[in-house]
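@channel anyone free to eyeball this complex?
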Amino acid sequence: QKEVEQNSGPLSVPEGAIASLNCTYSDRGSQSFFWYRQYSGKSPELIMSIYSNGDKEDGRFTAQLNKASQYVSLLIRDSQPSDSATYLCAVNAGGTSYGKLTFGQGTILTVHP
Amino acid sequence: GAVVSQHPSRVICKSGTSVKIECRSLDFQATTMFWYRQFPKQSLMLMATSNEGSKATYEQGVEKDKFLINHASLTLSTLTVTSAHPEDSSFYICSAPRTSGAEAFGPGTRLLVL
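replying in thread with the prediction:
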């Protein structure tokens, strides 16, 4: 069974610190990797996508992918209270399941002033 | 702006009634859409895959006769919760796949069955 695992947290960091969110996946053939943010009572919104090994930066967010280790992470620099949310890691295996994502359980992040 | 819309955003109904939720892709054609359910403080649970022009594919444990899915066009999928009961109260979210491989989510529909 294809699985995506995340530490459910909660992860608590002080304002201004770096928040590090981790995710591992079991399907070695996975092609695409995404991070979604979900505020309480809202639907998920896409914040980062990554497709090849290495780092991808977008503003305060950096996604890191290591396919050999089947590991993907999200770093949030200069964390703000508004970053407090649940972060979902999602993996797309590609092929016939293209477009159907497998989600992790989500990590709850709390940024305290 | 939003690329997937849902209607209604919130619905309250009596036990035993049926509720229809619409999901529209606004700026692209979607031959496939996904329906999720999320209970409070729990993760997303995929219910079914909606396929334009053919039957929906349901996940294990999801009753296809209770959760009717119709993908009437390339921009519209509907989920009907038939004979709703209080345990069906949940947050229902649809999504559509993008060429990037990501899914674009609708804003969700909060269903409360009394």
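from a first look: The interface with chain A takes residues 32, 34, 43-44, 46, 49, 91, 93, 97-98, 100-108 of chain B (CB under 8 Å).
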